[in-house]
Amino acid sequence: xxxxxxxxxxxxxxxxxxxxxxxxxxxxxxxxxxxxxxxxxxxxxxxxxxxxxxxxxxxxxxxxxxxxxxxxxxxxxxxxxxxxxxxxxxxxxxxxxxxxxxxxxxxxxxxxxxxxxxxxxxxxxxxxxxxxxxxxxxxxxxxxxxxxxxxxxxxxxxxxxxxxxxxxxxxxxxxxxxxxxxxxxxxxxxxxxxxxxxxxxxxxxxxxxxxxxxxxxxxxxxxxxxxxxxxxxxxxxxxxxxxxxxxxxxxxxxxxxxxxxxxxxxxxxxxxxxxxxxxxxxxxxxxxxxxxxxxxxxxxxxxxxxxxxxxxxxxxxxxxxxxxxxxxxxxxxxxxxxxxxxxxxxxxxxxxxxxxxxxxxxxxxxxxxxxxxxxxxxxxxxxxxxxxxxxxxxxxxxxxxxxxxxxxxxxxxxxxxxxxxxxxxxxxxxxxxxxxxxxxxxxxxxxxxxxxxxxxxxxxxxxxxxxxxxxxxxxxxxxxxxxxxxxxxxxxxxxxxxxxxxxxxxxxxxxxxxxxxxxxxxxxxxxxxxxxxxxxxxxxxxxxxxxxxxxxxxxxxxxxxxxxxxxxxxxxxxxxxx
Length: 578
Hints:
By secondary structure, the protein is α/β, with parallel strands linked by helices. Helix content is 65%, strand content 10%. The chain is built from 20 helices and twelve strands. The protein has helices at residues 2-9, 13-45, 50-98, 102-107, 110-131, 134-152, 154-201, 203-208, 212-238, 240-265, 270-312, 373-378, 403-409, 424-428, 437-446, 450-455, 473-485, 503-516, 552-558, 560-577, and strands at 332-339, 350-357, 362-367, 388-393, 396-397, 410-413, 422-423, 463-464, 491-495, 521-525, 537-542, 545-550. It has a six-stranded mixed β-sheet with strand order 6-9-10-3-11-12. A four-stranded antiparallel β-sheet has the order 2-1-4-5, with no helix packed on it. Strand 9, helix 18 and strand 10 form a beta-alpha-beta unit. The longest helix has 49 residues, at 50-98. The protein is elongated, with a radius of gyration of 35 Å. It starts with a helix and ends with a helix.
């Protein structure tokens, strides 16, 4: 894990090394200051040697100024290195997430990824800044101060050694006790973020059903859970302060006690006592700094593990050694396809699928909820890999194509339509980044979106709010269809993507498809039989199996499921007409 994180420091390694360098110089100046002060007291003031006092005073001021300069430089480089480190972490995590397949994404919840990119990275950043400055300063200061203290009085210095052992044992115990609780806290943070995200995203539903009180209760429960976990961890960590104070005051009392006896016996001077007290303060303050680092590292360790999980995750979909970069046509073939989301051949979402669709055909897909309609179409652009068998597009196994090439030629309008914050033009150009205004208008006309877009005061420059909340469901669907058409795909998949439009608009969209993109293979998942009744072929799915496949006329004669759906909808429609 440490090697992985060190690689993420990247171009900020120079700053990461300069910070400790200046910390060492700062510490050297600081430990020399008590020595110079003792010399002024014992050699200058005690003997009335004012020239010596002035000389050592100038040296003392110079050492103080150098200590200040070195400290500022150390802080500057530490802050730069830590900020750069966090920037690299967020960048590489985000880039890696972009390469995830759907199955990779399924391993991490969205709130968990958000927490890792924000809170966890901030924790690691703060810990790293302390490590390259405070964690270096503490031990170096302790060693140098100990050496200087031994130069003054070896026997008194032994008190420091005992204090270090006692304090070190106490800090280690606190660390081991608190760390598991911090790990649990960040898991609870994921749940907290999920509750907040759900509430904010679905705020209209919450208000429509007057569920504010229930949502507040849910938030209060998880928030209190986070509070309780943090309280337990912080109670353990809080023992650090009284332990530190106890050791510090005990050491100072012991030094004063024994030093007083040495002074009376003539074995120690007043200046040496003063320097010993300063060195005691430096050593014990260094231990206090290290205790702070321990606390921060405890928190950051749990965060670092979660970050590395994301960085180490590798997409289970990779290009083959020599991928193909061109699709011959839009023909699609399923050859003995089984699929499981969990990779378990005993828990199949799709089973034994064998189909052949010619290029340019329109294929309807119907089936009950949970019959694996969306799963079926997601295998075509290789959003998931089959568990057994193969899916062919243009006569070639999809696993032999370059992923970008395949997905550029297989356009999917998913069941959950997503628009991003930006203008309508910017959203449409997701389909083709260099599309002209004329091309945008053309695809919007095909998707029956041009009319309502043109009615907006700003037309195609109208701003879309995050998630497309300022357009209706039907308008959002039509914009997503237009975006997919810009790719000029060989295969177009509509996953229940016209459910929010009226039957007339649905019919106009299908008519435009027939006339404008006759060579594109079209898969249409629909709940309305009217949306697929003029398809060339219809696939009937039931419990992950293809139970019927053929033309609408054939299925009406041979498929009880299709006939039941057809008659129930048509009969209901006729009764409404009456």
